[in-house]
Structure formats: structure tokens, C-alpha cells
From TrEMBL:
<dbReference type="GO" id="GO:0003677">
    <property type="term" value="F:DNA binding"/>
</dbReference>
<protein>
    <submittedName>
        <fullName>Transcriptional regulator</fullName>
    </submittedName>
</protein>
<dbReference type="InterPro" id="IPR002577">
    <property type="entry name" value="HTH_HxlR"/>
</dbReference>
<dbReference type="Pfam" id="PF01638">
    <property type="entry name" value="HxlR"/>
</dbReference>
<dbReference type="InterPro" id="IPR036388">
    <property type="entry name" value="WH-like_DNA-bd_sf"/>
</dbReference>
<feature type="domain" description="HTH hxlR-type">
    <location>
        <begin position="91"/>
        <end position="189"/>
    </location>
</feature>
<keyword id="KW-0238">DNA-binding</keyword>
<keyword id="KW-0805">Transcription regulation</keyword>
<keyword id="KW-0804">Transcription</keyword>
<feature type="domain" description="HTH hxlR-type">
    <location>
        <begin position="1"/>
        <end position="99"/>
    </location>
</feature>
<dbReference type="InterPro" id="IPR036390">
    <property type="entry name" value="WH_DNA-bd_sf"/>
</dbReference>
């Protein structure tokens, strides 16, 4: 999955939770999905509509009531739902797992498998504002998912951010670094 797709999916609070629930086999009816995710009706409806617009979820034809439709994953949605499930599993034991519902948490963590500066992260995400990035990094640092180190030898000193602990597990689950895995395998051989 590329960073733009990840940003687009996570821009709605409950998208990852809905995809993960469908991947786990939760029936696609609204009541079961609401119970499994803990979402409110309005936020749930917005997230499902967003996933339908992205082509990841579709109404299950011939099932459900017009006012209470049943949903299922599309072919493309199945692959991304597996990633969403891995992301939620990586954060499951953390008391801060609700951070996954914030729009920029997963995209920022996905970029921080290797140390990056604030500006590098911002350029990679494109549409994020400096304020939103700053707030995301502060909240991730406060919960211990990201560490900030300062290179005092550089002029001016530069801060580097890197995903750690649960943040690193989430970053790996996002799969952005999978293209780099063959190089890592060569180094260990």
C-alpha cells in the first residue's frame, strides 16, 4: 500500500476498525459492525460511505434491508482489510489504541520506520499542515510510540523522529517498507 492510499483510508475515524472487523468475520450488518467497532451511528455511516466510495466495501446484493444494508469487502478491500487487521492487532495491547482513529497517526508512523526529520515527514505526506503534523508527533511521542532525538552536532541542530515499541509494530504492519525487505534479507544472509 502506498502512502496516499493509507492517508485516504485513515481520513475517516472508523475506517480501519470497520475493515478489520469485516476481515475478522464480523457479519456485515450495521448492528454487528457498530457493536464490534464501538462507533457512533453518524461516524460509522460516514466511514462506511467513504469505504464504499473508495471501492473497498460494497453493499451485499440481495441481503439486508434498504434502510439497514449489509456490507461486504470487495476484492481490493480484502487485501487492505488484512492490513487494517494487522494494524489494529499491533495496537491492541496498548492503552493508547484509540490513536489509530486519528487521521494522521498511521500515515506518520508508517513513514517512521527509519529516522526522519519533521520536514521529510511533511514532504512525504504532502497534504498535512505543519500544525497537524506537530500535534500528531507530540501525541505519538507522549504515548511512547515515537521517539525524538536531536542531532546537536548539526547546525542548526536537527530533530529526528522514529517509531518505537507499539509505533514500530504499527509501522511494520502498514507495509510501506515492504519494498525494502529484499535489501534487508541480503544484509542478514
Amino acid at each position: 500500500m502506498d502512502i496516499e492510499t493509507l492517508v485516504n483510508i485513515t481520513c475517516k475515524a472508523w475506517s480501519l476498525a470497520i475493515l478489520a472487523a469485516l476481515h475478522e468475520g464480523v457479519p456485515g450488518r450495521q448492528a454487528q459492525l457498530l457493536t464490534a467497532t464501538g462507533a457512533g451511528r453518524t461516524a460509522f455511516a460516514q466511514s462506511v460511505t467513504h469505504l464504499v466510495d473508495l471501492g473497498l466495501v460494497e453493499r451485499n446484493p440481495g441481503h439486508g434491508h434498504p434502510l439497514r444494508p449489509e456490507f461486504r469487502l470487495t476484492g481490493a478491500g480484502q487485501d487492505i482489510a488484512a492490513i487494517a487487521h494487522a494494524l489494529t492487532e499491533a495496537a491492541a495491547a496498548s492503552q493508547h489504541r484509540d490513536l489509530l482513529r486519528r487521521a494522521w497517526t498511521v500515515p506518520v508512523l508508517a513513514l517512521l520506520q527509519a529516522p526522519r526529520t519533521f520536514n521529510e515527514i511533511g514532504r512525504s505526506l504532502g497534504s498535512i499542515t505543519n500544525r497537524a503534523l506537530s500535534q500528531a508527533l507530540k501525541s505519538l511521542e507522549a504515548c511512547g510510540w515515537v521517539t525524538r532525538t536531536v542531532d546537536e552536532d548539526a547546525r542548526p541542530p536537527r530533530a529526528f523522529y522514529r517509531a518505537t515499541a507499539t509505533g514500530a509494530a504499527i509501522a511494520r504492519a502498514a507495509g510501506l517498507g515492504r519494498r525494502e525487505e529484499p535489501a534487508l534479507a541480503d544484509e542478514t544472509a
